[in-house]
Amino acid sequence: MKSITIKGSERESVGKAATRAARNAGMVPCVLYGGDQPVHFTAEEKGFKSLVYTPNVHTVVIDLNGKTYNAILQDIQFHPVNDKILHIDFYQLSDEKEITMEVPVKVIGNSKGVMAGGVLRLNQRKLKVRALPANLPDFVEADITNLEMGNKLYVTEVPTDNFKLLHPDNTVVAQVRISRAAMKAAQEAAKAAKEATKKKK
């Protein structure tokens, strides 16, 4: 999985006044959990754009004046009115410890059902995976090539490489639904066949 570096500075004071002052200065108060002690720090809000405002997921290298930590974003709080970032929680990664993340689904292939007039519906835009940090995928591939009209692709049919998918076996990842136009055409074809049968009699 690709990584993004966030540069910040450790916070000596974590009170409300210090937190307010940090936000007024365009900084985001953050906490890194998962180590021996929580690490409080601040970083510039603009530094989080490529981490927060994207459909992709990344691990994070937190650089606090040269001291680095590998982490993932665990929780984020936004202002209810202006959507500015108020606070972010990170979780420190360990090379030997599996973690759980939601990863985007990437559709590959050309569905036979779609080419025949069906409509592709992506039921799961993200899937929850569990893996060691080194094995976390950037995305999960959903191959829709063999989906005929009316078919479904279940999570059990999605290939996993060094990671687990944490979903029930009956979870539908994608499906090809019959479009209104295709349904109308099928109805008209059935009606025409019925009329042709009547004429023969």
TrEMBL record:
Molecular function terms, GO-annotated: 5S rRNA binding; structural constituent of ribosome
Record's keyword terms, sorted: Ribonucleoprotein, Ribosomal protein, RNA-binding, rRNA-binding
Any single biological process term in GO: translation
GO CC annotation terms, alphabetical: cytosolic large ribosomal subunit
Record-annotated Large ribosomal subunit protein bL25 L25 domain positions: 6-90
Superkingdom, taxonomy of origin: Bacteria
The keyword Ribonucleoprotein belongs to this UniProt entry's keyword annotation: yes
Keyword NADP: no
Domain Large ribosomal subunit protein bL25 beta: 98-178
Pfam families reported in the protein's UniProt record: Ribosomal_L25p (PF01386), Ribosomal_TL5_C (PF14693)
Family the entry assigns: Belongs to the bacterial ribosomal protein bL25 family. CTC subfamily.
Function: This is one of the proteins that binds to the 5S RNA in the ribosome where it forms part of the central protuberance.
PANTHER family in the record: RIBOSOMAL PROTEIN L25/GLN-TRNA SYNTHETASE, ANTI-CODON-BINDING DOMAIN-CONTAINING PROTEIN, RIBOSOMAL PROTEIN L25_GLN-TRNA SYNTHETASE, ANTI-CODON-BINDING DOMAIN-CONTAINING PROTEIN
Subunit composition and interactions: Part of the 50S ribosomal subunit; part of the 5S rRNA/L5/L18/L25 subcomplex. Contacts the 5S rRNA. Binds to the 5S rRNA independently of L5 and L18.
Protein name stated in the entry: Large ribosomal subunit protein bL25
Organism: Flavobacterium beibuense F44-8
Lineage: Bacteria, Pseudomonadati, Bacteroidota, Flavobacteriia, Flavobacteriales
Annotated gene: rplY
